[in-house]
Structure prediction request, 138 residues.
Amino acid sequence: MDGVIITPLKQVHHPKGDIFHGMKKSDNGYDGFGEAYFSTINQDDIKGWKKHTKMTLNLIVPVGEIKFVVYNEGVKEFFSVRLSHDNYQRLTVKAGLWVAFQGIGEYNMLLNIASIEHDPNEAVNIELNNIKYKWSII
Prediction:
């Protein structure tokens, strides 16, 4: 999908604790840095739909498993991916696309490396049922 990038990330295993790479400014998808934050989502819960008008999202799941769904309303196209410790990748979502996500694991945490600082006026939120997508646990 145009505006979406999946980037495999490196995990460095160490006997005293592993290292999980996130993002470098030389990476494809890097669009500046505004802030980084962690968010959790409960198992089976769904957050979304949200569309940022300026922010590029860089989403990483170091704990648990989360299903992300991106919707491009201009071409009526969906993209989905499940990220986790076992599928350790970064999902980059450019501004202008709708995003929602569902907690799959018992405890789920994501990191967003956002291109700009949070601005409550630059995002649009709508009810989950406003975009027709069949959510299910796989």
User: Anything to note?
Assistant: The chain has no helices and twelve strands. The radius of gyration is 15 Å. The mean pLDDT is 95. The first strand starts at residue 4 and ends at 8.
